Amino acid sequence: MSIDSGITWRNPLFVWGGKRDVEELPTIPFRSHQEVWEGTRRSATKLNVVGRLRYYYKWPGHGGTMWNRLRYWPTRRRVLRLRGEYNPKTLRAEKTIVDKRPIWWILGLLALAIAPLFTPGDLQNTLLTAGATFGIYAAISLCWMLIMGTAGVFSLATYAVVGTAAFVTALLAVKFALPWWLLPPIGALVGLVFGGIIALPATRLDGFYYALLTLGLNELCRVYFVTSKEFGSANGGLYGAATYIPEDWSQLGQLLLAYYACFGLMLLALLLYRFVNGRRLGRILRMAPEKREAFAEATGVNFRQARVWVFLISSAALGFIGGFYTSNFGGVAFSIFNFDTVLLGLAMLVIGGVGRAEGAVVGTLIVVFFDQVLNTWGPARFMIIGLIMLLVVLYLRNGLFGIKAQFRAWRDKKKSERRSTRAEKGGEILPEEATETEDKSVIYQRRHDKMTRDHLKTLVSPEIIEEHRHSLNGQHSEALERLLIYFRTRPQVEKYAIMAVERFEGYRIVALSGHRGVAPRVVEDRIYATPDEACHGVFMRRVQDLLES
Amino acid sequence: MDIWFIVSNTIVLACIYGTLAIGISITWSSLGLLNLAYGFIFAFSGYGAWLFAQHVSASGPGVLAAGILAGALGGVIICAVGFIPIHDKPNFTIRGLIATLAINLIGTQCLLWWFGPRSKSLPEIFGNWSVSLPGVVFTADKIGNVVTSVLILAVVLRWMQSSRRGLEIRAMMMNPHAASIVGIGVRRTSFYVMGITGGLAGLAAVLLSQTYYISPFGGLMPMIKGVSIALCGGLGSVRGAVIAAIVLGLNEALTSISIGGRYVLITQFVVIIVILLVRPRGIAGLLDKAREA
Q1: Which of A114, A273, A322, B76 has the maximal Cβ count within 10 Å?
Q2: Average pLDDT score over residue span A468-488
């Protein structure tokens, strides 16, 4: 833009003969702020829809009904966690189900309860046996989940506890002809003693160190039981204990009884999980996750004691399951001590996701399906289970039930990556931020400021600067007037002041801090001879700040 | 007589298990990976040596070399499958442990499927001679086992002390983060480490097969012993592993003599628990600084 562009501005106040007034000044052509508006609205790239999807279905309903809460005894818990809110646009009262898991649990358990009615006839035997096995293994997985997820002790001794309890109860049942209902409590006692012994190192070792220690425990038990005389080393196991399944029932009746008894065992284990993980012990241990134990300890949380408690409770429960195992199958085989049994059990936890009851149950369902239903496949089924376990552990952070959180984290990462490639901020609130901002007027204020600045930047030219240098006060051309008005309306932090170094001789520019009691700071070394020169210097700095914003 | 037999047996087993334990220790301290697929590597290299003996030649050094190479290959496979994809992901320690366990499950089942459940035996590597001292007879395989394992361990440790690659591995053992900053590639070094420790496992497998047979699940017991020794000695310390191997070997001999072989694992478990209750980071808590997760 040159001074000879031919456009001039006539000073309308010239006729009044003011001091230093000139009649005509070269200036720039008029530029409408509308152009900036249009330019901002127009975009060469495809614009994506911005904002958060409403993931939750919003149930209608009056807000007052939120206060009628159904709680189930003996806890103070509500059946469903609801959140009442008002629709920000329509102001209609609506409800959100924050946690839908109880619904899924009820549906899933109902499906398991009525599943025997829908098994095809030729597969009934296999499926009902697999269902009973699933119940027992799900109970074991839930107790293991308490140890691994809640207590954070990476124990591999679970099946050693179960097997020992099963063998001891089987031996007692065979020797003393004990009734079947005595076996689970005796098993619980055995499990408690066993758990108490192996809980000793758990007080000092943490995490995977404990896994290495208990790695050999199964083998230890297997060697001991196989080589001992009492436990029947010849026939691969110890059988002949009393069982709760009556001999005189039909085969289908026996299978159904076993199925529902094992289902009941799983429900008991779920209840135990709920009561340990969801109440005081679980809360204490959630306070002390891995690598933050020191903080928990400093705040007075005795997490070691809580860990040992959880360990003992689960060991007793595992022993109970061992006793039940004996009374279900009428004995126990040595294969429960196999290392592969431990690995399959671990696969059940890992596939579902550590630290969740639903993970334990669904993981068990998957593994038992491959292991029991497809049992004609031989070693291939173990390979499939191992492959699933490997893929889950390689690609998922926390099993199948961690997919949701992992996917959301990934999506947010991708979102912010894309945003950083396309966003030109310039003081404006970004679209993604905007949806989170409560006061929407701030968004439009910032957007207006940004467009104002964009418009004003086009007005800065040598003519304007020359005009300002020539006449600081008085009537200005339109472009300069817009600039000066903008400068005046900005907050104090953006402004400068003129300090007299020596009256009528030296002036310098300082920047105001904008904070009460904080002195202005010197921004340049230059000393101006007159206040007018310093004033123009301030103008130049403001113009520079504008162009840089 | 009987005592000397058990003691010499114990020394042999301590050498072999010590070799495995040092492999586990090195893997843990340099990569932060707890390799629980050693059972698979062990059986894999045993079958590798067996295939070599069946199809190529039955000469002692050849079979030994084939076993070591097969072990190194197994280690590299585990590195590529279980370490490379997740070594920079969150919660790596536990996930790596589970991944190696899964590889163990898959691998041993593959071996079972391919070779069948019948166990195989290797030819005698060290010949069929013996040395008689007053009161004790040392057979060829015992002397050969001890000499070979000590020799190869010494060579490996010497290589780690003096070579460029060994320097990289030792740097990773000291501080993996700093090592990666000064330009030591974690992935490349991990292949060396896993190759070498897998080779050590292969060596142990071939040596142990002089006493026991090769079967798909035969690697479990050596792995348990090796892990116990590594844990007891303090993960990441070679000296600790040597001391722990001697202590646990002594325990095994004493238990076998006094109350019988079937209580070996039980007394070993008790000994480890006592040691870990006193020093939660193992014996090397006294000697070296163990790696913290």
Answers
A1: A322
A2: 90
